[in-house]
């Protein structure tokens, strides 16, 4: 086995030098005056509505696009206020469906903007000018070729409307299908967490107009609140356009199958010393179990809530796996040792309040900053919504971005009807968290598996592990003794153990630890297919299979920080044989972006686009021949639809895994020059241009020699010769370093 290598060296930063040509319609496309007239009429109806409804001191306008749209193709002149981009007025986004010109149903983007009434009036006024010019001088249809001529030649309508505004309005009109005012009309009969669109009116003041007395104790933030059914009806009756999204507050917990086997002999365990600590957020913990000294427990619920025996089973079982799981599950011996647990009881056995949990978790994490890995094996029986992230997941994503921690979350269970596919439940839709589903011993999905994706796009679950099934149950310790169980709840703690080992013992950042877990699961035969059941694959059982590689593989880690548009190195020396690189290659990138629930389906704020491969000098430019053929962000013009970029290159996903497919007759890659490879991370932003600055990333790279030759020593020497500091990660050494670091020093 080869050791894992960590490369430390210099990454360079570069501003975005790309420049687009003159704006134009797509080739062979046009805009008709009839379509522009329809858009004007829709805006006029919307304007009239908001002139009669002045509660929000402005207007909410939903823009329906012709397909899933790239940021560069969103409206630029329509609904713009002075020098501000319309992007700043977006208050929500979702996916919908429209029919194309051939009558086929296609998925599209819908963005809701909040603007002043004068902005709508100005858009109508300018659109009418453009409509009249197209109707009179272009026979009712302006084409790509017509816009090209306007860009090249004198523009004769400057006295009517500026050239840039004229062209932008035509391009906007092409991509915009229609304008509407969206309303949630479905009946809401239970206490819910409701998000209203952000306007210029203070939330308390706004809701008081509808007879709702809002106090801060009922608010998660300025636009997300807990409301009773009668309060929701007041809004729906008077301002149905105000509700952006809603979810039920009191939620049934996704159940696990527990077959009790009481009266088993109590095991023994030594007292804890300096073992790492994992945080557990779950139901409650019974200190009377044999490993009670390993767990620091705190009840976070109100003292008036009376707890029953059932409220201690699940939480105690979860902590038993984290502390000592391999002792009673020898087939899952992972080599990670034992862990201490800081256990917070945040729910009872049968239901939880999303609102209460949201209030608790941030407080808990902020007051326990020494804990980097948190296990959350609670989940909702309800399915996630396909158009927005759950409040619980959004809060977890926010906490992870802010506090440099990582959550491991169970993928939730389908116990109601295993024959019917069921989407995962909150908070397993957390994008930054590592979400774990369950598989059988043969690697097939468990009978109770629920599925992703999240927001119709993000791969969830991330990975899978062994959580037991009917004939191969997991052993846990409960307050009544040994029990046999199954469920994603009991798969997640094993991944928490591995992450904690990588972060605390090996000393990796959470970005590298997460990337390494995903990379080890994906291997050379990734499983992130359209079923969305197993994630990237099943994580290896033993930690040695994660931190080591086979003799014919070179696996190394790189990490850095984003300071500019591009962060790169062109200095990775890969051994070549006869002017060729005889390697299969793969790379996994992980980062923890900011996210905004109010942005709906456009949830993550920052996109990191990975390019990894050979360095080539071409026409005076240095480029990376990425192993997956990624042409995004290159200086040459490429035509790529947004939905294709998402599907092919996982655009906007915070996990990128690119890999070669192992084939027997594969040929070595041609080596360019002295055989250098490069890594480039190019960053795009959805809203604030500085959101990604200071964001950390971790990359795991694996090179597999096609002929089975071990070339790791050559690689290390070549890296050192080019200025890299190469650290061989030896587990025994890392354990010694950790133990030394945790020793108590007594001063005389």
Topology:
Layout: E1 2-8, E2 12-14, E3 30-32, H1 33-52, E4 59-65, E5 90-99, E6 105-115, H2 117-137, E7 141-143, H3 144-152, H4 163-175, E8 176-180, E9 192-196, H5 203-208, E10 224-227, H6 229-238, E11 243-248, E12 250-252, E13 257-260, E14 277-282, E15 295-299, H7 310-328, E16 340-345, E17 351-353, H8 354-366, E18 373-376, H9 391-403, E19 406-410, E20 434-439, E21 463-466, E22 474-478, E23 481-486, H10 492-505, H11 510-522, H12 544-547, E24 548-549, E25 553-561, E26 566-573, E27 580-581, E28 583-591, E29 606-618, E30 621-626, H13 642-649, E31 655-659, E32 669-670, E33 676-685, E34 696-705, H14 712-721, E35 725-729, H15 731-742
Parallel strand pairs: 1-25, 14-16, 14-18, 15-16, 18-19, 19-20, 20-21
Antiparallel strand pairs: 1-24, 1-35, 2-26, 3-7, 4-6, 4-8, 5-6, 9-10, 9-11, 12-17, 13-23, 22-23, 25-34, 26-33, 27-32, 28-31, 28-34, 29-30, 29-33
Helix pairs in contact: 1-2, 7-10, 8-9, 10-11
Question: Any overview of this molecule?
Answer:
- The protein is an alpha+beta fold and 748 residues long.
- The protein folds into four domains: 30-180, no CATH class; 192-248, no CATH class; 257-509, Rossmann fold; 550-735, no CATH class.
- Helix content is 25%, strand content 27%.
- The chain has 15 helices and 35 strands.
- A hairpin with a 2-residue loop joins strand 22 and strand 23.
- Helix 1 packs antiparallel against helix 2 (117-137), helix 8 runs parallel beside helix 9 and helix 10 (492-505) packs across helix 11.
- The two termini are 45 Å apart.
């Amino acid at each position: 086995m080869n050791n894992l290598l960590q490369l430390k060296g210099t990454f360079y930063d570069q501003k975005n030098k790309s420049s687009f040509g003159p704006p134009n319609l797509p080739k062979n496309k046009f805009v008709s005056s009839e379509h522009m007239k329809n858009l004007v009429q829709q805006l006029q109806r919307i304007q009239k509505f908001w002139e009669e409804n002045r509660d929000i001191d402005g207007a909410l306008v939903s823009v329906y696009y012709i397909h899933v749209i790239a940021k560069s193709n969103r409206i630029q002149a329509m609904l713009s206020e002075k020098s501000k981009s319309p992007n700043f007025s977006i208050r929500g986004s979702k996916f919908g469906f429209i029919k194309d010109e051939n009558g086929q149903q296609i998925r599209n983007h819908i963005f809701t903007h909040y603007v002043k009434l004068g902005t709508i009036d100005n858009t109508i006024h300018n659109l009418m000018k453009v409509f009249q010019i197209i109707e009179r001088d272009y026979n009712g249809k302006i084409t790509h070729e017509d816009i090209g001529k306007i860009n090249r030649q004198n523009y004769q309508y400057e006295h009517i409307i500026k050239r840039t505004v004229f062209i932008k309005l035509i391009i906007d009109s092409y991509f915009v299908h229609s304008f509407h005012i969206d309303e949630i009309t479905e009946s809401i009969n239970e206490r819910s967490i409701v998000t209203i669109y952000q306007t210029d009116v203070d939330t308390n003041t706004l809701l008081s107009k509808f007879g709702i007395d809002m106090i801060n104790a009922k608010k998660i933030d300025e636009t997300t609140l807990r409301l009773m059914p009668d309060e929701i009806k007041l809004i729906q009756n008077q301002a149905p356009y105000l509700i952006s999204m809603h979810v039920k507050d009191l939620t049934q917990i996704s159940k696990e199958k527990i077959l009790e086997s009481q009266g088993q002999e109590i095991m023994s365990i030594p007292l804890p010393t300096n073992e790492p600590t994992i945080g557990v957020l779950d139901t409650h913990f019974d200190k009377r179990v044999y490993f009670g000294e390993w767990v620091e427990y705190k009840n976070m619920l109100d003292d008036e809530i009376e707890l029953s025996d059932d409220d201690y089973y699940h939480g105690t079982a979860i902590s038993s796996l984290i502390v000592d799981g391999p002792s009673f599950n020898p087939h899952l011996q992972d080599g990670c040792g034992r862990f201490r647990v800081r256990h917070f009881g945040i729910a009872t056995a049968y239901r939880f309040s999303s609102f209460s949990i949201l209030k608790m978790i941030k407080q808990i994490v902020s007051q326990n900053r020494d804990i980097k890995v948190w296990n959350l094996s609670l989940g909702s029986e309800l399915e996630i919504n396909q158009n927005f992230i759950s409040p619980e997941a959004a809060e977890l994503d926010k906490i992870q971005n802010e506090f440099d921690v990582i959550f491991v979350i169970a993928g939730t269970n389908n116990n109601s009807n295993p024959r019917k596919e069921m989407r995962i439940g909150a908070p397993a839709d957390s994008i930054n968290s590592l979400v774990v589903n369950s598989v059988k011993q043969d690697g097939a999905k468990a009978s109770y598996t629920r599925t992703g994706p999240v927001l119709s796009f993000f791969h969830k679950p991330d990975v899978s592990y062994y959580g037991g099934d009917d004939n191969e149950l997991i052993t846990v310790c409960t307050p009544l003794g040994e029990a046999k169980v199954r469920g994603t709840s009991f798969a997640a703690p094993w991944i928490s153990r591995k992450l904690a080992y990588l972060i605390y013992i090996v000393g990796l950042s959470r970005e590298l630890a997460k990337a390494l877990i995903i990379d080890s699961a994906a291997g050379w035969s990734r499983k992130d297919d359209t079923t969305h059941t197993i994630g990237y694959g099943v994580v290896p059982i033993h930690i040695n299979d994660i931190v080591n590689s086979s003799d014919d593989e070179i696996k190394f880690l790189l990490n850095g920080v984003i300071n500019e548009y591009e962060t790169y190195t062109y200095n990775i020396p890969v051994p070549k044989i006869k002017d060729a690189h005889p390697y299969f290659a793969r790379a996994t990138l992980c980062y923890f972006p900011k996210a905004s629930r109010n942005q709906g389906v456009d949830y993550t704020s920052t996109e990191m686009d990975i390019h990894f491969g050979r360095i080539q000098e071409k026409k005076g430019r240095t480029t990376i021949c990425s192993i997956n053929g990624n042409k995004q962000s290159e200086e040459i013009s490429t035509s790529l639809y947004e939905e294709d970029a998402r599907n092919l290159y996982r655009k906007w996903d915070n996990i990128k895994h690119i890999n070669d497919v192992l084939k027997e007759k594969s040929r070595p890659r041609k080596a360019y020059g002295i055989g250098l490879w490069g890594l480039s991370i190019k960053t795009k932003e959805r809203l604030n241009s500085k959101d990604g600055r200071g964001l950390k990333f971790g990359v795991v790279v694996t090179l597999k020699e096609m002929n089975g030759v071990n070339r790791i020593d050559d690689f290390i020497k070549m890296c050192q010769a080019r200025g890299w500091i190469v650290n061989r990660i030896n587990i025994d050494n890392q354990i010694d370093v950790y133990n030394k670091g945790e020793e108590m020093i007594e001063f005389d």
